## 1
Amino acid sequence: MPLDAVKSHFGASGEILHRFANGIDDRKVESPAAAKSISRETTFGKDTRDRSWLKATLRYLGERVGGELRQRGKQARCVTLKLRYADFTTVTRSHTLSQARHTDQAIFDTGAKLLKRELAQGKQPVRLIGIGVSNLIEPGRQLDMLDASAQRLERLNRAIDRIRNKYGFTAIQTGRTLLLKDIFPENEGGYTLHTPSLSR
């Protein structure tokens, strides 16, 4: 479209649009900023109140979040639960951890507590569930000399990550996530959840 025609329709911004449409852009090229959060969510094919199904899905999504968190070499201080109900009301509930974590168990435990509190209010069936982490920091924390369980969980998660990287995500699962094999189709990358299951 000629420049004059674009300018007559869009005014001063028409010239900028015309330049961009023709691949002319003098701005400095910058790489995308580092992610400030990591999240996963999925929409169910049918709204549900089934708590075991919701917790199984939450666990799976939390494992995906934890895996990516460790892959990026980060830890998170905040865990957020997202729910969308049958009437499309969407709520988010967050909890700040006392210490930054990147283990699947810490993410799931926090998300499960938030889910339990939210479901206790007896609202409508759930259409979408998601979990995310934010306030990402570099690893490095004060070691707890009296509680080695956190260190064991970190080593366990690293071992699980290696198995999943080699044999696929569902090669090793928790008992809770095995419920999902009857609900969602499986592929090499894990369960195929409904869009937007792997949104950021």
## 2
Amino acid sequence: MLDILYRDDFLVAIHKPSGLLVHRSNIDRHETRFALQLLRDQIGLRVFPLHRLDKATSGVLLFGLDAETARTVGGQFESSAVQKRYLAVVRGWPPEAGVIDHALSRQFDEYGRKFPADSPERAVAALPALTEFRRLACVELPETVDRYPTSRYALVELMPQTGRQHQLRRHLKHIAHPIIGDANWGKGVHNRFFQQRYGCHRLLLACTQISLSHPRDGRLLTIAAPPEESFAHMISALGWEGCRLTAD
């Protein structure tokens, strides 16, 4: 049973768990469970996905309940009018706050499969991509994980201003603070440390809040979700229980 965060006659939002695909994908042909189908069966209505979360990312996932709503809200996402907030655990201590302004080229198809290096799709010019971030907490562990005698990690809040594919994961790698658990853009030695030390086998990235104009009356609608249990366990294990996890 999916956790429904919000529902009215036009929209429904769920708390997507890590490891669940939004919809059927050729890249994971063995998968038989998808958020779209599970929600459709749960509420007995056709649903329209309005944005995406990677399979490994948990958090707020929004659907429309009719085609007109899908078009209206889809336009908000395309114009970057929807405000999204994420939490992530990253390697190292990034600055207290900043903006990552780093254009991203198209390297993947709509299913997440990587284009060959010589493909025409990858020859297209990189598109502007902006991510605001704020460091919420940090920790230094007396563990030699990489080449340093201690290991530093941080909890960060991420506010993407554009919606490029895998933007947050690629941007965090770009500033040398990759997200823990990221098999594609992370650092394997730190991922393995979290697996062995904490039993953490997931990407530590979660969408915790979405704000948009309601498609019916234009009012500001904010939908929030706390980190799911596996993420919350890591926040506790790293000593960040008292950290503010929601926006001001």
## 3
Amino acid sequence: MRGHIRTGRGTRSHSVKCAADRLRLPIDDIRLLEGDTDQIAFSNGTWGARSVSVAGTAIYRACDKVLVKAQRIAAHALECAEGDIDYGGGLFKVRGTDRSIGFADVADIAYHGVGLPPDCSPGLEVAEFYDPPDTNDPQAMHLAVVIVDPETGCVALRDLYAADDCGVVINPMIVEGQVHGGLAQGIGQALAEHIVYDRASGQLLTASFLDYGVPRAADVPAFGTTFLASAAPSNPLGVKGASESGAIGAPAAIGNAVIDALWHLGVRDITLPIRSETVWRALCDARRARQVGEGQASHERQAV
């Protein structure tokens, strides 16, 4: 089974699992070839949360075509009609009998060319492309709980919860890890990560991880995550993207939580990243605005 993709480790396991499930073979019998132009003519890599929904669907459809041809070869080898063949567990069986042939033996016939049905070309290779008719849109709901010190502006993220609809989840552990990684990225965007340039020279001042704020273990709370599964109608696997929702929802949830904590102090807007200085300045601006408003109100009362 050849995969026309270049992937990360998680997508590799998804792709192999898709092929093993569809071919009804042990996962150890599947080998994914990727990113090698000596063997694969083209690969555009994985991006945009598309690997499983697009490449996985291509694998799904390719496996179906492989099985159709393999069943034809098996029926010829077992001297029966194709409609009399049942397939499962890597075996092609003649219905109602004890006669069978294994998938490996069918592949051996296919590649040796001896014993093929009439007008059947050798091999079990399929090149399949899939152009999805529509997008698949994952959905998520995020809840952040923050503690803000109004004196120093320090923000502590106490809790972060996420409920994600990633469609049909093929590998729960990997998907949960993807969401966790996205949440950590979103925390960094909301509370720490900031690219700073020198105004006079244009020199990048946050050029290393010594200067650029990325979230550490102490900055990340224990996540509360759960998953809903509504199958995507745009692909037969029913899968949706899962790697980006954490990074998208977390900054908004954290930002809204900080605003909610400071609302009674007059803060109505705050820019990212929400560092202690950012909060302190927002509080100072709100305090000045409140004093100006109170001064104007007092002047109007005196004028009346």
